[in-house]
Amino acid sequence: LVASFQPKSLAGRRVLITAGPTFEPIDPVRGITNLSSGKMGYAVARAAREAGAEVLLVSGPTALPAPHGVRRIDVQSARQMLDAVMANLKGQHVFIGVAAVADWRVANASEQKMKKTEGGAPPVLEFAQNEDILATVAATTSVSGWPYCVGFAAESENLLGYGAGKREKKGIPLLVGNIGHHTFGQDDNTIILFDEHGHTVLPRADKLTLARQLVLEIAKRIEHSAL
Ligand code: CTP
Ligand code: CA
What we know:
Organism: Massilia glaciei
Strand content: 25-35%
Binding site for CTP: 103, 113, 152, 166, 170
Function: Catalyzes two sequential steps in the biosynthesis of coenzyme A. In the first step cysteine is conjugated to 4'-phosphopantothenate to form 4-phosphopantothenoylcysteine. In the second step the latter compound is decarboxylated to form 4'-phosphopantotheine.
Radius of gyration: 18 Å
GO molecular function: FMN binding; metal ion binding; phosphopantothenate--cysteine ligase activity; phosphopantothenoylcysteine decarboxylase activity
Pathway: Cofactor biosynthesis; coenzyme A biosynthesis; CoA from (R)-pantothenate: step 2/5; Cofactor biosynthesis; coenzyme A biosynthesis; CoA from (R)-pantothenate: step 3/5
Shape: globular
Bound molecules: cytidine-5'-triphosphate, calcium ion
């Protein structure tokens, strides 16, 4: 109740968020995925909606319901996620890439279910690199100045070094870093914000609390920009 009387930091803003894992097919009944639960991305979507934004969530397969008032597009593969993002990018003020997008898809996926044979050799999978959705969106920003791009990075080591480097490489103003095995599937997280001034640690908290803090940080940074 109290929250509903507070000024809404993202009122009038349109926010596009990716969340969850992607699923890269091997054949019609099998595929490759990762350990993302979608909890962080869904928390960010909920927090952005609470802050008054119009939120579109492009989600890989998760077990989560769409947050109240959030429009969701369901996808499976990284390519489908890229297509859904690009088709809905126009007019967005903020893009937040929380999804754990598969870096590779199976290049020799089978159209029919693969069958094992008695004593036969196991299949050999070939991989092709998926396009970088965040970098593709960030590249469009150089034309209009929008959307404000935020990335997430899950590392397993050297978060401070990799986080700062990844922000630069992706060409984005804000990158959120976390340690993969401290967050995947869990309700709590510790995140570090990397921007052009350096980094800020947000102490361990539940994902919704962190998501609300992140939304405020984003709102502050776009406060005086008009589309
Ligand atoms: N990302 C993306 N498309 C991809 C790969 C990553 O949009 N094909 C986005 C993620 O949603 C995240 C950010 O890029 O916001 C960082 O993802 P991460 O996997 O940490 O970085 P990579 O550039 O893929 O580098 P690596 O996995 O080798 O560390
Ligand atoms: Ca990656």
